[in-house]
Amino acid sequence: MNLLFLSRRIFLGDDSHSGLIHGGIIVDTEGIIRRVLRSAQEVNTYLYNTESESVYDFGDLVLMPGLIDPNVHINEPGRRDWEGFASATKAAAAGGFTTIIDRPTNAQPPTVSVAHLKAKTSTARGKIYVDVGFWGGLVPGNVDQLAPLLSAGVMGLQCTLCDPAAPVTQEFPAVNEAQLEEALTQLDQDQAEGEAVIAVHAELPLPTEIHPDEEAPREYGTFLVTRPPQMEISATQLLGRLACRHPRRCIHILNCSSGECLPLVEECRRQGGNLTVDTCPHYLALAAEEVPDCGTEFKTWPPIRERRNQEQLWQALRLGGAIRMIGSDHSPATPGARALTCGRGRGNFLRAWPGINSLQLSLPVVWTAANRRGSNLTIADIHRLMCQEPANLCGLSASKGRIADGYDADFCVWSPEEEFTVCPEQLYTATKATPYAGQRLRGVVHATVVRGLHVYQQFEGFGQPLGKVLLRRSSRKLVKFVSM
């Protein structure tokens, strides 16, 4: 028998209705939406005439399509103590996410070959609470692996224009413009992979390195001056040139922090390039002026910039703006790597691993920041930025991102009005340090549903790890493998 999900505030995420409805969603035993009841009268008629196996009534809570994060670092195999599949997907579920896409960089081995992809997928099965897809890695010397990786099911390819921090530097080195051009040309010649996305960490090394003040390593400004906006601007200019030379290819900029890059993105699009951008909750909600001494949990690449920079980012979130989506760039690490342990190295911004623990908090962080600034950000905008556009980017829009007949019954159930105080102990990530500790946030996730199954409930905790590994054969065919 079918399942029935009810709410007086359902956001469908389809073109036929942009507001909230009082209705219901009928889900079959395979976790697929079979019918949407668009009024209380339709619900009453259905209940009178039909017996459902279970009815879940969420009352006045908002029921919307499950969130999708295209920008998550899961460091297993190899660095599960930084973040593993079980802990990351629990955090995702508690944050309203039903699908996350893992970046290739921080695991051992990184996902730069089909063999390494298989190591990832075999490790994930049986551990994941939400659906997980994968980016494949593009590094110097693995051009021959790109087409096989895409054929094996990665959502797209990801590279960086600047070397990662130690200890990942040698494992996932940066590519230069010539190497990226070579990869794009080869992919363009392969008609079967004509729509594969290339995602890029967009910072270019400076021609002359900025030497920080080694006498003040615990001050955030000492670190901030070493990664000026020009690193992002130069990278965006490079990617704009490539996007115009390869107009069939979508090039996606990951975690953009500098508002000065956005006019370059818009100009590239006017010239015919397909250049897209995401930004992160921490760039929208946190400012350099707020970072305390020794607060290395705030450190990330690109860095959190000054408050004056945020206005450009918020303006670019509007429909049709330069920023298409929001991704967490969730990248925690152990306290030692983050320079958070006791000793002489504590609080050293110059030595700490760069990455923010934010996956579980992304929705309330964005929603709270919008409310505090008096922004007119709506639930429809949250859906577009944190669900619909990520689904489009990753080729999932045929089955995820909407509440409609034939789609996966993936739901985020939350209260936009409720507030809570962030306690690190309540985070489900492998490590707990977060720059949001102690903050009062608005927006509480009450339940997360993946294909009709409750994977998270606020007071009951988690169900079974029934998430699926998602492998995309092409933009037209998605193959799902059950995690059993």
From TrEMBL:
| Gene3D superfamilies named among the record's database cross-references | Metal-dependent hydrolases
Which Pfam families does the entry mention?
Answer: Amidohydro_1
Q: Name one GO biological process term.
A: allantoin catabolic process
What do the Gene Ontology cellular component annotations say?
A: cytoplasm
Task: Give all residue intervals belonging to the Amidohydrolase-related domain.
Answer: 306-452
Q: Which GO terms describe its molecular function?
A: allantoinase activity; cobalt ion binding; zinc ion binding
What cofactor does this one take? Zn(2+)
Oligomeric state and interaction partners are given as: Homotetramer.
Q: Which family does it belong to?
A: Belongs to the metallo-dependent hydrolases superfamily. Allantoinase family.
NCBIfam families attached to this UniProt entry:
allantoinase
This chain belongs to the protein called allantoinase
